[in-house]
Amino acid sequence: MLTKKWLVAGVFTLLSLSLAMAAPPAVHPATGEPLVITCLKGTPDVIDGDLSDWSLDTMTPAVLDTTAQINSGQANWTGPADCSGKFYLLWDDTKIYIAAVVKDDKLSMTKTGGNIWNADCLEVFFSTTNAVTGHAEHYQFGFNADGQKWNWESMGGAAGVDPDYLKVASTRTADGYICEVSIEYGRLSSLNFAPGNTLGFHAVIDDTEATDREIQMTWTGREAHDQSLGFGNIILSSEPAVAKELSRGPSPANRAVDVPVDTILSWNPGQFAASHDVYLGMVFDDVNDATRDNPLGVLVGRGLTAAEFDPAGLAYGKTYYWRVDEVNAPPDSTIYKGIVWSFTAEPYTYTMPSVTVTASSASTAQGMTPVKTVDGSGLNADGQHSSVDIYNGTDEFRFAYKKLTGDGSITVRVDKVETLAAWTKAGVMIRESLAPLAMQVHMISAAQQSLVEWMYRSMANTTTTTQFNTTANANPLPVWLRITRAGNVFTGECSANGTTWTKIAASDGTPSSITIAMPASVYVGMVVCSLVADNLAVADFSQIKTSGNVTGQWQVTDVGVAQPANQPGQLYVVIQDSANRTVVVKHPDGANAVLADQWTQWKIPLSQLSSVNLKAVKKITIGVGDQAGSAPGGAGMLFIDDIGYGHTLSSQ
Questions:
Q1: Which of 26, 318, 566, 650 is the most buried (most CB within 10 A)?
Q2: CA-wise closest residue to 39 among 87, 100, 103
């Protein structure tokens, strides 16, 4: 794609070894011709049993259609209409595809699971090119017209399964059926799928007109697993499955996204092309149907001699369809209609939902480097607190919250806690109001003890009830915590991995669940309590998720006692690209930037970031204080939300 942007002495020992020897490809049992297929590159639009998106006329299939190819059941075979087929192959960067077109005058698929071979079924083998006995050097898969599939052999790997990495779709035809298959060849790890490599391949048709298999027809004419003389071969080609007269190799690649708006379109010309006609538009049918005589407003280049076209600026975020017709030289000037390709131009704004943002502020506590993950919730909270406790008749802490109406839940991962005492607490809470001593339930981590505690206050203005906690060292960080509301039943759970959840239990077996008559609308959020008066505790939360009718932006409040506000400090951002080039930008408001108590947008002109590659951002670091780390940067809490790049998104 062209774009305007962008001496050895020793003892020799003679060993006698039994070696597997590479074999020439098997030959056709009737003609004696080598069984070799060139597997071209290509990707079907969708695995749906419809082969209209396969260029079958450009491929050489494995053909099974003669008596000599029947390994068993010759007496039952009445001819190609009874049982025969063609196996076409394609491959791309991750998968190998099979299109099997089968003639079968009567379908019978009465078996399931690992027995599907014993009825109408297709089998394919991918193998080494060695001549070996046994099953140790091939993968074997089966599938049928009912969409069933199985893996019997995996070269020593796990087998005897319905493989989730094989997809099959089928359609019935007037004289048989079609099976379209994709296999993620990364799961065939003993074989090297790379351009120019040769692999063993064997195709098999199992057929019956009753219940059990009556005919086995194979490409080599030998028993399906018989690799003693080698299988046929497939050669993995880097050439696309396109007729030689047609344009190919589009740039941008077909179905590409985030294509720069000043991209120049280019392609590899057909073998005989003297010039090129280019069609470009936003409607597939127009681009597909247009001709020189009826251009439909999408013929943008006619008779071009160079294999490129400059569309002079694309629209942001739009999907385009394009086609290149190849025109032969006079006197015939034959026009070969090209394939319709598509791409989507870059959007106005790039959101970055999986960037790791390091908030690298300094503090009097050594090693304070909280790490937050922008995870799609729009918030990475670190609670900071200078309070006494959340226990008995004390209710003093800092709370980051949203509103929940009806049933719902809050889930977080507690990554790190700057513990000032054995019971410095960080976790999740649901409470009826923001007033001290309100009804509430909470599930917290006491990180210094590596345990989880469940506690609640069932009536306002009373003491809490400590129901129970896990044993010390049972729940080291990171730990996931969750509270779920279902009616007036509140349940606390914890997890070591975020997928397997358990309630904690008291010595008498009572689980961490309680019925409290809270109002329909409550507050859900993250809580931090230092347990040391006038001292800050810092907790790092990530993977923050809520369910139910949760509304509002994240807000922070002090419950029970005023909490320290942010100390002034210079806010800055460091952007690092994949080549490890960095640029540092300081907030223009200096030390006052971190004192804002409302959401404040910080726009950084791209001209200030010109020293890094914004198309290959590796890391974004947000810090407060001295970026070199030579002096403390104050203390407090900073919320970061909606990191984006590019043009401002329009309101429409």
A1: 26
A2: 87
Are 445 and 477 within 8 A, CB to CB?
yes
Distance CA 324, CA 272 (A): 14
What secondary structure letter does DSSP report for 58? G
pTM of the shown model: 0.48
Q: Is 500 helix (H, G, I), strand (E, B) or coil?
A: coil
Instruction: Say if residue 320's pLDDT is above 90.
Output: yes
pLDDT digits (tens, 9 = 90+) for 266-302: 999 988 899 999 999 999 999 999 999 999 999 999 9
Domain with CATH 2.60.40.1190 in the chain: 21-240
Contact (CB, 8 A) for 135 and 153: yes
CATH code for residues 248-347: 2.60.40.10
pLDDT, tens digit, for every residue of 503-551? 998 888 889 999 999 999 999 999 988 887 767 777 888 888 899 999 8
Domain over 383-559 is classified CATH 2.60.120.200: yes
Which residues have CB under 8 Å from 129's CB, separation 6+?
Answer: 22, 23, 25, 198, 199, 200, 230, 233
pLDDT of residue 15: 35
The residue among 277, 48, 43, 28 whose CA lies nearest residue 180 is 48
In degrees, rounded to 5, the angle at the alpha carbon of residue 307 between the alpha carbons of residues 306 and 311 is 90
**Residue 650: pLDDT over 60:** no
Give the DSSP H/E element, type plus range, for residue 287. Answer: helix 284-289
Query: Among 446, 524, 51, which Cα is nearest to 241's?
Result: 51
Q: Is 560 left (phi over 0), alpha (psi -120 to 50) or beta?
A: left
d(CA 243, CA 232): 24
Task: Name the segment(s) of the chain with CATH classification 2.60.120.200.
Answer: 383-559
Q: Where are the beta strands (DSSP E) in 77-225?
A: 83-91, 95-104, 121-127, 130-131, 138-143, 149-154, 166-173, 176-184, 198-207, 215-218
Region 10-23: mean pLDDT is 42
Element (H, E) at 413: strand 397-417
Report the Cα–Cα distance between both ends of the chain, in Å, rounded: 32
Nearest to 443 by CA among 500, 501, 402, 403: 501
Its CATH class, for the domain covering 21-240, is mainly beta
Beta strands in 187-247 (DSSP E): 198-207, 215-218, 232-240
Is residue 68's pLDDT more than 90?
yes
